[in-house]
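User: quick one
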Amino acid sequence: MDKFEQAFNELIEKELKIEPRDWMPEKYREHLIRQVSQHAHSEVIGMQPEGNWLLRAPSLRAKQVLLAKIQDEGGHGLYLYSVAETLGISRQEMIEQLHTGKAKYSSIFNYPTLNWADIGAVGWLVDGAAITNQVSLQKTSYGPYSRGMVRICKEESFHQRQGYEIMMQMAFGTPEQKEMAQDALNRFWFPALMMFGPHDKDSAHSSQAMKWKIKIESNDQLRQKFIDHTIKQIEYLGLTCPDPNCKWNEETGHYDHSPFNWDEFWNVVNGNGPCNQERLDHHKKAHNDNKWVREAAAAYALKTEAQVA
Amino acid sequence: MKITIENKDAMSVIRLADTSVILAQRLAEMCSNGLTLEEDIALSNISLDLFGRADELYKIAARIEGNKFTPDEYVFHRNEREYYNIKLVEQPNHDFAWVIARQLLHDIYAKELFTQLSTSSNHEVAGLSQKVLKEIKYSYMHSHDWTNRLGLGTAESNERMQRALDHLMKYVDELFNFDELDKKFIPDPEKLKAVWFSEVDKILGESNLKRNAVAPPSMRDFREGFHSEHMGHLLSIMQFLPRAYPDAKW
Ligand SMILES: [Fe+2]
Ligand SMILES: [Fe+2]
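Assistant: Done. Structure below.
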């Protein structure tokens, strides 16, 4: 072990932050680029399922809250792309990797939003699961990522609140609204829980990431936290958890859950979810249709620079 | 639900509110379709300002009308023929040049209009106008900058921008066909028209673009609730939920 590696290990050991200028093992850098770019792409692709209801948001207030929320996610994407850039990859490269399928994003966004309550369920469950993960990541060992999470978490709690507010409105509304709320919960419950990733015993990446303190708590720990917290909210809403085995367990001090359908999870990750193709096509189309605009902006910048010089 | 607007001042305010909400809705369509994340965020900002402005304007109109209807009722429960926005803002986002051209033509109009209204005898309108002028200046800076970039960028961008302007110009004529309500509500209508043409000509001139003359269009006026074909589609999407579930609260 050379002195650089020793210094790196010491920083990790003492729970100090690794900064862009510090030496780091190539594998650490690669792991982070993969994780942070995936995180950035998730923020950006996540704008689409919510955008699907933006134009149909049913009140002036709902429109403004949802638009502000989606705009925040764009800002998170922007912020995370610049975190990844500190690791030596450009935004352009990351977008190419997204378009070729080399880079992934959270599979949850490959599910469709089919009624207005889905917008509630996304804020409540999907942002909720993301927050559980991101609160933990505030302590991650890479400095820029950790600081990014602190900033992002402040906005995320507003996202979850706006989602839960829609759920309350729907669950306590007309019978038709309550039905939509239950339908949304039924469709998003298991996918949201699987957002935390494979069980610890099946998660190869995870254990190395924990040694490097990129990841602080394991997938199963975070998932359990989320379940325990969310069940009470389901009860308050007067809705039914779609998992009949989700019951309090005196022995473990936690809520149980049924086995997850990991075949579905991996099938969606591998491109066969309800909307994988649509999400990517949408992103590519916005990017490609506006190529002429980016060219115009670049040409104009060159001309005006030439005038200044 | 039949929504009525009795008071003439309320009707003048409703016209402004309708123009704001319809443009906001059009810009919201651009969310997640921006050329970059930065631009996506910028257009969302402008859309948010316009929704906020519409909300405030409907509240003022509602108060003049004795609060018979809420802002949401004005937005979600009026039919096409009961909407009084300028037709310019309902035109689609054909490409980014259309978005910018529509915004520029609107912003120059809105800037002078709200500048004049900031001295309105209606104190609520005057107060709100002072507040929204800041937002309009931001939007105007954005549309002005992009007009420069597209006009002077590449041959393609110049051509697309010119095409968008040439098309949208036919919705300009009606802006200045002032009726009695306008003449009572807008402090100096003739100045609004003069400022609009001189500013548009200045910005297009510096951007290597032209304001081509269009034949005076035979088109019914927005002040009587007439629209282009695009409007019905926009409303059918925007109003879907409150219309499909009239008993629900949102
Ligand atoms: Fe986010
Ligand atoms: Fe969020």
